[in-house]
């Protein structure tokens, strides 16, 4: 945004220092800024970035033009009126009391036209707050007066003619776009009389309706585009661009002036679908105050009458509105102001003071915040309508107090805290998981959360950047498989990898942190004399058990009955759960999918929900016991178990029986060492168990454990109905 100091003087009284300076002979930027005491440093402290300062000199005087970059939440200052209002608040400069232009009445806060013949309608559309139309006749198209050209040039706008220049002037001064149409062309387009049979209205575009814009490009519209129409014929896309058939040219004598307030979201979506960005649409997207359109409309009409000698037809003014000005009332605690902003610097280095109540109220006055009620502890105030889009809560008001008073006047001391931050349970799991996997030769992978949209698999975005990133992922596994495929094509044989990232679930309206990994696929031999072999399912499962042991959690394993995906082997997929709550999966790549995509068949994948695991009470408390100094005794036993009983079920039941045989001096550990399937007997299998006996008080003898072993065998046989 460009700010002209000579233009700015029309709104505020810039203070001058004592001294004589001949402005028309001065080209020094520093001298002119000093002359006007323009607060460059204060603007920077208040959040405005000064991009450039230039000096423009003509035969009468010198002018300073400042290029300023504002933050996105301050769209209200992207014009001369708004910036002068902001400068008045920051520097406490007085506003000018005289009219901006000679022979022009003070701008009213309402449309004070005669109500005779006035058409006032309520809008059905929620995307329009207000819109004004005005017919003007006897328009004389010519060059703009020198003062108008000079002001437009100073803010980097090239003059065209008096009509176009006035609409550009409105945008620069008020931040309010205006659209002008040739009324004679509209009458010809609609084949009607502009005085009697012309009806201006607003409607949504029809599906596949075409529109030729003023840039001579044809656009295909949808039902979400809003149109300005004359007798139902489009003459403009609301808030974006006008029609090529109604452009103003040097032969124009009658005008239709449009000024509206449109929904920012609707304009943004419409411009993106059309692939069309205009300066008009950009202003609407940033947001415009509800009161700005009527002020700018009234002002522009008077300038049109003054510069073009146009006759305003009061009986043809059309005003539509769908909203009322809303007041935002906030309560501000004085203690919160001083608690957040801190103490003020004083001349004494050993003392400091807080903002007083009168100083805080003075800041509200400069900000044009209307104070409703003041008590000893708080103040109730009303936020001006032009600031309601960025002042929403108490903390926003406190920030404004700091800007107005000056952040540089507060002591740079960090606020004290009585409590120290700590790492969440989920973050602990993330760090432990990452540490374990990296120490076990896994490579960490980093992928996008946005993926290619596939029907029924991922959560589609309403406003995607591109088709490749049109959905949010619901699992990490497909991305990992694609990464491994890419690495294998690049002859990178290092396959073990993992990713820790977020996934999204629309049905549950949640997102969670997951860890997923892939490993295996490479041949190895344990000794030089052995043959090469690949990782087995049980060896891969042991890797996951080691991970769970490193996390100090205990999960149950169950076979998955329904296939996760065609990519995975149904018979070699397991779900990890606790109390019927699914917390992860472990699976092997499907042989057919591996063959089709040139992948090893011995690839194993896993995925764990770290968010859910951290919320459950699964962390086992580490208990350290005294180590036995006496030798241990082991016994191997085996049982024929039906295939209808899973290994986990069998081990759990045997552990319960073993615990019953333990005594105060004898402890028993149970471990599975064999799982043999007889090819001739598929209904059952042989499970071998190792019982390890320990004592903390004596050396155990065979006679001490024979009876216990016999009891365990008898109990297990009874359990198996043998």
- The shape, in one word, is elongated
Q: Could you tell me the strand content as a percent range? A: 15-25%
Compute the number of structural domains: 5
Taking the sheet with the most strands, its summary is: 7 strands, mixed
Describe the structure.
- Helices cover 30% and strands 25% of the residues.
- It is an alpha+beta fold and 722 residues long.
- It has 5 domains: 90 residues, Phenylalanyl-tRNA Synthetase, Chain B, domain 1, CATH 3.30.56; 203 residues, Phenylalanyl-tRNA Synthetase, Chain B, domain 3, CATH 3.50.40; 82 residues, Phenylalanyl-tRNA Synthetase, Chain B, domain 1, CATH 3.30.56.10; 191 residues, Bira Bifunctional Protein, Domain 2 (BirA Bifunctional Protein, domain 2, 2-Layer Sandwich), CATH 3.30.930; 87 residues, Ferrodoxin-fold anticodon-binding domain (Alpha-Beta Plaits), CATH 3.30.70.
- Strands 19-23-24-28-27-26-25 form a 7-stranded mixed sheet, sandwiched between helices.
- A hairpin with a 5-residue loop joins strand 8 and strand 9.
- Helix 8 runs antiparallel to helix 9 and helix 11 packs across helix 13.
- The longest helix has 18 residues.
């Amino acid at each position: 945004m460009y700010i002209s100091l000579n233009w700015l003087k029309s709104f505020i009284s810039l203070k001058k220092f004592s001294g004589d300076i001949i402005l028309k002979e001065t080209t020094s930027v520093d001298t002119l800024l000093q002359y006007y005491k323009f607060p460059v440093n204060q603007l920077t402290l208040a959040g405005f970035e000064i991009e450039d300062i230039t000096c423009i000199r003509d035969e009468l005087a010198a002018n300073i033009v400042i290029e300023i970059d504002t933050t996105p939440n301050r769209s209200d200052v992207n014009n001369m009126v708004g910036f002068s209002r902001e400068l008045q608040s920051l520097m406490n400069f007085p506003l000018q009391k005289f009219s901006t232009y000679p022979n022009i009445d003070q701008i009213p806060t309402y449309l004070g036209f005669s109500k005779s013949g006035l058409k006032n309608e309520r809008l059905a559309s929620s995307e329009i707050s207000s819109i004004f139309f005005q017919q003007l006749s006897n328009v004389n198209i010519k060059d703009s007066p020198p003062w108008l050209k000079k002001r437009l040039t100073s803010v980097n706008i090239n003059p065209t003619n008096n009509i176009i220049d006035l609409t550009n002037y409105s945008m620069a001064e008020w931040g309010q776009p205006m659209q002008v149409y040739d009324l004679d062309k509209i009458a010809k387009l609609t084949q009607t009389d502009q005085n009697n049979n012309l009806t201006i209205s607003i409607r949504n575009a029809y599906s596949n309706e075409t529109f030729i814009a003023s840039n001579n490009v044809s656009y295909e519209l949808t039902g979400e585009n809003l149109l300005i129409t004359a007798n139902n014929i489009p003459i403009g896309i609301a808030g974006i661009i006008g029609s090529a058939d109604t452009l103003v040219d040097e032969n124009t004598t009658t005008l239709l002036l449009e000024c509206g307030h449109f929904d920012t979201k609707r304009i943004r979506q419409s411009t993106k679908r059309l692939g069309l960005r205009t300066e008009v649409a950009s202003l609407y997207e940033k947001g415009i105050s509800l009161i700005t359109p009527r002020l700018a409309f009234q002002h522009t009409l008077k300038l049109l009458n003054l510069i073009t000698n146009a006759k305003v037809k009061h009986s043809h003014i059309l005003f539509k509105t769908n909203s009322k000005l809303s007041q935002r009332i906030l309560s501000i605690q004085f203690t919160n102001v001083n608690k957040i902003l801190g103490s003020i610097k004083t001349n004494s280095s050993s003392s400091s003071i807080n903002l007083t109540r009168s100083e805080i109220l003075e800041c509200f006055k400069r900000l044009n915040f209307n104070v409703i009620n003041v008590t000893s502890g708080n103040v109730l105030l009303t936020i001006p309508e032009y600031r309601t889009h960025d002042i929403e809560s108490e903390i926003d008001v406190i920030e404004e107090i700091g800007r107005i008073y000056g952040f540089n006047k507060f002591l740079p001391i960090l606020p004290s805290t009585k409590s120290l931050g700590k790492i969440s349970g989920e973050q602990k799991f993330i760090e432990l998981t990452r540490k374990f996997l990296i120490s076990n030769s896994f490579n960490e992978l980093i992928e996008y959360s946005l993926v290619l949209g596939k029907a029924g698999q991922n959560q589609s975005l309403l406003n995607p950047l591109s088709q490749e990133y049109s959905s949010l992922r619901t699992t990490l596994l497909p991305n990992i498989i694609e990464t491994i495929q890419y690495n294998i094509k690049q002859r990178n044989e290092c396959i073990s990898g993992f990713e820790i990232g977020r996934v999204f679930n629309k049905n549950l309206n949640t997102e969670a942190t997951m860890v997923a990994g892939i490993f295996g696929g490479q041949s190895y031999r344990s000794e030089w004399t052995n043959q090469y072999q690949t990782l087995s399912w049980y060896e891969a499962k042991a890797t996951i058990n080691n991970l769970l042991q490193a996390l100090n959690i205990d999960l149950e394993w169950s076979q998955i009955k329904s296939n996760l995906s065609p990519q995975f082997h149904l018979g070699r997929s397991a779900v990890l759960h606790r109390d019927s709550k699914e917390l992860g999966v472990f699976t092997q790549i499907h042989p057919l999918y591996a063959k089709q995509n040139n992948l090893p068949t011995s690839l194993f994948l896993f995925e764990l929900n770290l968010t859910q695991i951290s919320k459950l009470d699964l962390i086992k408390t580490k208990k350290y016991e005294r180590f036995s100094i006496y030798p241990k005794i082991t016994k191997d036993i085996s049982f024929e178990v039906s295939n209808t009983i899973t290994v986990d079920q069998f081990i759990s039941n045997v552990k319960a029986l073993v615990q019953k045989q333990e005594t105060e001096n004898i402890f028993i550990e149970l471990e599975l060492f064999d799982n043999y399937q007889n090819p001739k007997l598929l209904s059952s299998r042989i499970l071998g168990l190792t019982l390890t006996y320990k004592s903390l008080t004596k050396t155990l003898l065979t006679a001490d454990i024979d009876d216990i072993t016999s009891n365990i065998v008898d109990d297990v046989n009874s359990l198996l109905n043998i």
